[in-house]
Amino acid sequence: MTAQTLSATTLPDAGAERRPTEDRSPEQRSWWPVWRGILLRSALVPVIVLAPLVALQPSADHRFNTYSNGARYLAHPGDLFFEAVRSVPQYLALGNFRPLGRMVEWTLDALTFAITGLLGLPANVSLRLVSFASAVLLTLATVVLAECVVSRGRPFTGPPSPVAAVLPFAVGGSFVAAGRTSTTVLFGGLYFLTAALVLLVAAAAAGAVGRPRLGTRLGVLAGVTGAVLAGFNEMAWLALPLATLVVLVRARLVLALSWRETVRGAGARFTGLLWAGFLPVAIPVRLIIARECLAGRCYSGSEVAPDGILGALPNRLTSWVPPLMWQRATEGPYGHTLGLALLPALVLLLLLIRRFWRDLPSCEIPDRRQVWALAATGLGVLVLAATMGALNAQMQLLAAAGWWGLGWRDSALAGAGGALLTVALLTGVSVLGRRKAGTYRGGALAGVLLLVLIAAVSSSANRDYRAAAASEKPAFVHDRVAQEIADFDRSAAGDARRCALREQYRNGLRRDRRTGYPAELRRFDQAVNAATFRLAHRPFCAKLPA
């Protein structure tokens, strides 16, 4: 019978079979090597899946913000705060509040530009590296939330659950380039970090459950965090209802506390203080935005359309399902799904299975109540993210047109929720009936192999998306622009190439916007000039105004 290490703080699970530990050495009883393996998988699985996108061409605002914001705020980081505050009225008039979220976004632009300047990498590569790092943080945040919910004692003071060991494979498979609006393609750094923030705030609330008292410092932190969430972005607002849910789930399902103990406990107080810090900021902001949108002046991405939510909700609830996302990623001329990237990705992911199999006996097998708690948490994350997506008028139109599996701003959080739900399902199948160690390990291995295959196909689908995007003329132009900025050629030939790229960009505009000095071309000039003046003290094209 395989041995298992138990935490001294772990409460007994009635009816569960425990395995002897006296024949294990102190080194074997230590669970920290197991956590190191989980951290390693949380870092490597997302990178393996996302690796085919490392040279994906910039699109939408990324074509300009990386240069203009990056060059500006790298040179003057103090402007981040003042510009975010100064622009609040302007963005409120457009139905958008997010001062702290913009500060994070601009910081990521500056970091991207700094990598380009330091390593000489094209901005599109630097942009993806920052996005990959954010995806790793999201994977870690998902693991932290799961462990805080299912732990019977104080989280991270005992052996991890196998849920934490499996989750990196499930989360990694959700990082699919499911269309141009997917967070894997557009604003990945910002929305991966936002989703990680939501999950970590909920994890902190779950971790407070069962504490004898909340404490002044933690209470103040909760109130400040609530105010921060109100000024971050709309997706961050989901941390409040999610924190409320996980407090109830852990208190009632995992720790079996009474309703009286639940509502008077430290977890409920932490959540109450979150709301207390959040509502005084969020309520007046939403009233102002509702007035602007009612007058038809707000940005369409910020408009809320409650009437169409029921029609779009099924679409958004399934938007995280990998096969549906593969369909969106492989729609281009190079889409094969089972393509060139499948085999190397599969080999690399299978190499991680060996460490997983070695660490699995040191994990504490969950019981049914813990599995139900994990499933409730995953479903809660998924429903909240999907509801926000379904409230958007644009998503409602796309859902009505049959665009299943299409990525949007909710994709990062929906993918994490779907991963939690998937792992809960796989774990639940393994713990049905008697929880014998050998049977459970075999079921866990089968589940992980399935998740590895899904992640490998997601990597292949990402390769197909990049190949299709590279075949488009506008993407090619911006790819070459990034190369020319990174490897700035001061010769007359280099200047001629850059001026030719500018002309190609003009020719790619709509015919009615090619004459004169259109706004799109002016924005292009401002962005690339900011970059080249910062890196080489020269204009992008000598014919342009400096």
TrEMBL record:
Residues 1-10 have a biased composition (Polar residues). The keyword Membrane applies. Residues 1-25 are annotated as: Disordered. Keywords: Membrane, Transmembrane, Transmembrane helix. The chain crosses the membrane at residues 38-56, 106-123, 129-150, 162-179, 185-207, 238-258, 270-289, 334-352, 372-391, 411-432, 444-461. Residues 15-25 have a biased composition (Basic and acidic residues). This is 4-amino-4-deoxy-L-arabinose transferase. It comes from Actinoplanes regularis.
